[in-house]
Design goal:
By secondary structure, the chain is α+β, with helices and mostly antiparallel strands. 34% of the residues lie in helices and 9% in strands. It binds flavin-adenine dinucleotide. Residues 9-15, 31-34, 39-42, 45-48, 50 line the site of flavin-adenine dinucleotide.
Length: 85
């Protein structure tokens, strides 16, 4: 435990993504109040991959949606997660 550098509280999509990235370079612990990961908002949404069309063109939100969409498709392909486009 002494060498743990980062503690992530919350195993939703955001906490898990942060932990996955950080864990490539350091020891990370994720703490979740429920028994399993993703039991809160991340497993109770509309399951739509946002394309950024609802945000002003070139806004940071629109840019991140487009970038995130490509990364998500890539991630699903790498880990064989079925996804409907
Ligand atoms: C109705 C609805 C529909 C949506 N539809 C879409 C969609 O179609 N597409 C899309 O991309 N996004 C959608 N979203 C948004 C998306 O679901 C959220 O932005 C995303 O899931 C947030 O992830 P998160 O990790 O921040 O939160 P969460 O998934 O809520 O994760 C936070 C975690 O932290 C844990 N936690 C909190 N406090 C503590 C504590 N003190 N100790 C330990 N654990 C704790 C919680 O139990 C939870 O597991 C929707 C959201 C809602 C509400």
């Amino acid at each position: 435990m002494e060498h743990i550098e980062t503690l992530v509280i919350g195993a939703g999509a955001v906490g898990l993504a942060i932990a996955a990235t950080l864990s490539e370079q350091q020891e990370v612990i994720v703490i979740e109040q429920h028994n399993h990961f993703g039991e809160h908002t991340s497993s109770r949404n509309s399951e739509v991959v946002h394309a950024g069309i609802y945000y002003p063109s070139n806004s940071l939100k629109a840019q991140l949606c487009v970038q995130g969409k490509a990364l998500l498709y890539q991630h699903c392909q790498t880990y064989h997660v079925p996804i409907k486009r």
